[in-house]
Amino acid sequence: MKKSLALAAMALLAVAPQSIGQTMIGKNEITLKSDLMTPEALWAMGRIGGPQASPDGKLVVYRVAYYSVQENKGHHMLFVSNADGTNKKQLTTTADNETDAAWIENGRRIAFLTKGQLWSMNPDGSDRKQLTRSATDIEGFKFSPDGKKVILVKSIKYTGVIQANPTDLPKATGRKVTDLMYRHWDHYVETIAHPFVAEVTANGISKNDIDIIEGEPYECPMEPFGGVEQLAWSPDSKTIAYTCRKKTGREYSISTDSDIYLYELATGKTTNLCKPADYKAPAVDATKSLRNQAVNRQAKDYNVGYDVNPQFSPDGKYVAWQSMKRDGCESDRNRLCIYTLATGEKRYVTESFDSNVDDYCWAANSQTLYFIGVWHGCVNMYQTNLAGKVMQLTEGWHDYASVQLLGNTGKLLAMRHSYSHPDELFVVTPSKKEKKADVKQITDENKHIFDQLEMGKVQQRWVNTVDGKKELVWIILPPHFDPNKKYPALLFCEGGPQSPVSQFWSYRWNFQIMAANGYVIIAPNRRGLPGFGSEWNDEISGDWTGLCMKDYLAAVDDAVANLPFVDKDRLGCVGASFGGFSVYYLASHHDKRFKAFISHDGAFNLEAMYTETEENWFSNWEYDDAYWNKDQTANAKRTYENSPHRFIDKWDTPILCIHGEKDYRINATQGMSAFNAARMKGIPAELLIFPDENHWVLKPQNGVLWQRTFFEWLDRWLKK
């Protein structure tokens, strides 16, 4: 149900035996049997990530992940190239994963992680040195600008919500739970991440590191997806800014209130930049939405929502971070906040951009910031000054996934993808004119595969909604499209519920492989998605089955009425997470439109989900009330009354349910219940259950099984 659900990078087999008997998984020089996308083609692709530009902007180091379906595992490798993409060199030469590359010593060396320890090497891969010999794995790191210190992220034991078992019962597997948040995403919370500061010496990194939140029962970086982007060094190397939600148990589970803290190395003093030292949060009712409670009705701005990912300005005068306004709302608009260290003044500099700031960086002049954000189904690059004047730099049907300075060149390094291509690296040169930035692609990792493939064309439609508004709908056509033919079509239901249907690339929910299997894809940006203004984004909360569902049906009906190649008698409906919930609801409210359904990790019984999920703030915000409250709001009553499980009597269409048993966001019992109900009614149904997967499907062979099952089911009912 999170906004953003990125998959692990994966590909197929290419082997070179190592002396220790491991297998080197590298680039797959696959030869395809046809020009249509297949699971084998998808999994053969190398997946680029983690780019870092050298301080002088002349070199770029990055990661490529390859996976082997045969061996059911992956390999992360490091590469370096010139900033124009030339002279690419593979740095990884063993079967061990190498990740998290960063430039140190003013660009003379590269630091990286392998086998749980921090290492360094020359930019050509030579002279490798192990820098840490920690008894605990290093999960992330960040060197100070002067190179004398380094932050090391390590997990420590935590018994705040799951008590330690008696020492005389070492084989006991039971867990005694004392509070909420004992599970998060896909694991039991028995450790928490802490940031440690260590000295950098001529012989490596000192073992005498200091835990900067020692004794505090909080995580930093934050679960479940936070990394070193949640920590930042000041330019003078004297201060660390970090993100932390200093709450535990029930209070943690109902609140999104994380803050930005400053830690002074010389004194050990910690200061909260978001709230005054004497701040006391108002009391709240944990069984109700925080929307209208006192915490979100305070006279001053206390940054009570998510505040994450701090960055100091190059001149050290400011700290920027991404900030959500309201406590309890995980999908609030992500603003860019600027904090003036000398005065304590806060300002929000992206207010004229009525959508989310997804990533950002400072310009060298400390007066400009570059950021990426979604608008009308595309994630482009923008800039803002300290006065909040926003200008769009790039345009086009694609999604930028990251942005950073290309060293001291005045240019930007970014990742970008689309419905038709996975992430590649680009160099962007800003222009003083709107939408006129110069963009150059510098990698083409999978050219050898895409040269063999025919991609389906992508179209854009604006569809009338039932309340007189306009809805952006993406249409993806099959390769070798024939306008005179009739094609089966799939309605794609998005998750989140507030995740954009932008130009994403997925190795599972991939529109091009759906199109390659002969389907037209209808992908609406229905009510509740960012990129169309805050009002459109907020209209779904408390109304999951209202305008949102009507938007889905409006998109389908428009396609049937106006696209002569869409076969109205062969329509399917598919989706995951909130999209899976949408499938379950539409299965009883589609008026015979659809002939087959697929729900992955969908919510089926909203009463059960209220107390099953781990991040309780989500259900509180979206439902308004616990199901046992007698004074429920009208929104809460409508939500529970329209839970899909209450309409099984109306189900009459074949359905495939998919779920991971390690999904603690939407528990597997939801998918099992839906499948069981369908079969009790005699409806054709199948259940694909993954005991070892979470909200996503990450293992290669499971991924292939997912694809095969997905299309076997659709073909069975839509290609008769």
Please render the helix and strand layout as text.
Elements: H1 39-43, E1 47-53, E2 59-68, E3 73-82, E4 89-90, E5 99-104, E6 109-114, E7 117-121, E8 129-130, E9 140-143, E10 149-157, E11 162-163, E12 176-177, E13 183-184, E14 187-188, E15 191-201, E16 204-205, E17 210-211, E18 231-233, E19 239-244, H2 249-254, E20 259-264, E21 270-272, E22 307-312, E23 318-323, E24 335-340, E25 346-348, E26 359-362, E27 368-375, E28 378-385, E29 390-392, E30 399-405, E31 412-418, E32 421-429, E33 438-441, H3 447-450, E34 458-464, E35 470-476, E36 487-493, H4 511-516, E37 520-524, H5 534-538, H6 547-562, E38 566-576, H7 578-586, E39 596-600, H8 606-612, H9 616-623, H10 634-641, E40 655-660, H11 668-680, E41 685-690, H12 700-718
Parallel strand pairs: 36-37, 36-38, 38-39, 39-40, 40-41
Antiparallel strand pairs: 1-2, 2-3, 3-4, 5-6, 6-7, 7-8, 9-10, 10-15, 11-12, 13-14, 15-16, 15-17, 18-19, 19-20, 20-21, 22-23, 23-24, 24-25, 26-27, 27-28, 28-29, 30-31, 31-32, 32-33, 34-35, 35-37
Characterization of this structure:
By secondary structure, this protein is an alpha+beta fold. 15% of the residues lie in helices and 32% in strands. It has twelve helices and 41 strands. Strands 34-35-37-36-38-39-40-41 form an eight-stranded mixed sheet, sandwiched between helices. Strand 26 (359-362) and strand 27 (368-375) form a beta hairpin.
